[in-house]
User: Fold Thiamine pyrimidine synthase from Antiquaquibacter soli.
Amino acid sequence: MKHFAPSAPRRRLAIVAAAATALVLGLAGCAAPAAEESGSAELTDVNYQLSWLKITQFGGFFAGEAEGFYEEEGIAPTFTAGGSNILAWQQVTGGAALLGDEDNTLLLQAIESGEDLVALGAVFQKSPMAIMSLSEDPITSPEDFEGKTIAYPDNGIAQFTSVLEAQGVDTSTVTIVPAGADPTQLVTGQVDGYGGYATAQGASLELQGLDVDYLYLDDLGVPSYGNVIITTKKNLEENRDLIVKFLTATVKGYEWINANPKEGAAIVVNDVNPTGGLDLATEEATAEIQADLIAGPTGVLRLDLDKFQEIIDSLVAAGTLSGPLDAADVVDTSVLDEVFGDKTSLLD
Assistant:
């Protein structure tokens, strides 16, 4: 089955100093009691910083709110949209958000630079990052890259080159150019392969009637998660019960949208972001196909320490990280352990 993958911004890889000013909502870990009430019960405000715009890759959060899962946990969530100049980890460390989601590499670079961050989960168990090619000239294996021109996000070219070398590809025969924000380079024949988060870009290509092949980086030996859910260690210590409740609702939200993809896409397009110019057919395709990338053998959102260590080691090997990190110091699996207990689903 072919897969699409979610849209993601091209963001610079360099870590800049955290400069986000704490917002009123973000003070004290964004956990102040809200004035809003449901019946007689007060709800607690929680601000969550999205790493990109309000689109269907984040549909589990929006479904969780629409279906009342956060309210059941006593939470009034706010989901703040990201953008090309916004680093979610800065909003979390600066106090503007209690939690957020971030790219693997950006997160690990921030931690290496001394930021007090910890990974709790991930929206995508298998990163949607893929090399897309037209089926008339497909790229389906490492040897297919030789003699080809590939567009790839400029902040990941060094790691991608290292991956190709590790697969035995003669990279002197491969031309790698920065990828544009959409796959026009592939459609117009400027490149033979386009690297991107495939849900929006892949769905766009498919909806144009193009026959597209996908080679996921995971299948090239690049372990990765997508949209890693983060907070600070201090936040986790001071607001653990609240974070457990937030992630309980989030797990339910992603289980719900995986089971109801078209309805979930409609929530995003019609209710959450009606002025965002989203196409319902594209978002429906995204929701239907991303479910395979979100689902995990032990439950949605889960992280595996061994896989995370592989991610760290691959970034060290590529020179993206200057030295080794211990995944056990970077990831805390205990929160989702508490959420799931002995189950693998909260809605079954």
